[in-house]
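Batch manifest, entry 17 of 40.
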Amino acid sequence: MFKALVLEQEEKKTIAEVRQLQVSDLPDEDVLIAVDYSSLNYKDGLAVTGTGKIIRDFPMVPGIDLTGKVLESRSDEFKPGDAVVMTGWSVGERFWGGYSQQAKMKSNWLVPLPDGLTGQQAMAIGTAGLTSMLCIMALEEGGITPDSGEILVTGAAGGVGSVAVALLSRLGYKVAAVTGRESSHDYLRKLGATTLVTREEMSEKCRPLEAQRWAGGIDTVGDSTLARLLSEVDYGGVVAACGLAGGVGLPTTVMPFILRNVRLQGVDSVMCPKPRRIEAWKRLSELLPESFYAEASQVVSLEQVPEMAQKIIAGQVQGRTIVDPNL
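Output type: structure tokens
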């Protein structure tokens, strides 16, 4: 027997409960994993609280990330004892996820845990960090270098934003961070931000083109914040958009794209091809400084997840939250 956080739906309300399960309760996938750690992402918060229509089939074990060691495998790719990482692929949404002491996963969802990373460090990175790295790769592929100018990161105190600030700074970029919390200023400066911008300033209604301020941007918010960012990006700049915490709308025009040659690059980590995942994880393991893991993460138990899920939806969680199912 092992414990897991299980979601049920009663009268259209999502109920989260830690239960005892056995291996026969798990889906019939080809790799059985002893889970060391998972993590709490914004999407997990939506799922656990029932705020968003993330989960349609119940019961469900949420948790879109996990790391652990293979116990059993029917795949030639992995053998017992191998350390693995899983993010995305609709796990924790359509398929049972990482908020469990044991999990069964498809082998093609898994990548080897990179050399030099512990399981806890991998979940301090998690989906949020993988998404951040993919955003930075999009900026690089668009020709944005540290010499191009300042990069704006919206939602900078959140999971994706925190890792993005740390990575950009490590790569030599000058980073401007958007946050709505003055209490996050010292935290963001420690991660490497040199300029702090208020959330209110970035959410103000803007003209299609404003004064050019940023060489590029990483946006986790969407809606009016993304519209303002696009209006302020330099000629030939690139914006990597990966989130919608502020809404799914985009109140802008084509003018930034056709008059300033701005590129808006969508970034998805859920269905990202495996070779690109492996490349991104390798770079994450090499780039993130040791100090990041202490500054940007906290560890909670399965029993604490429902409370933390409420907090992440309310914008009260700073950095990354690691879930240890074995606490």
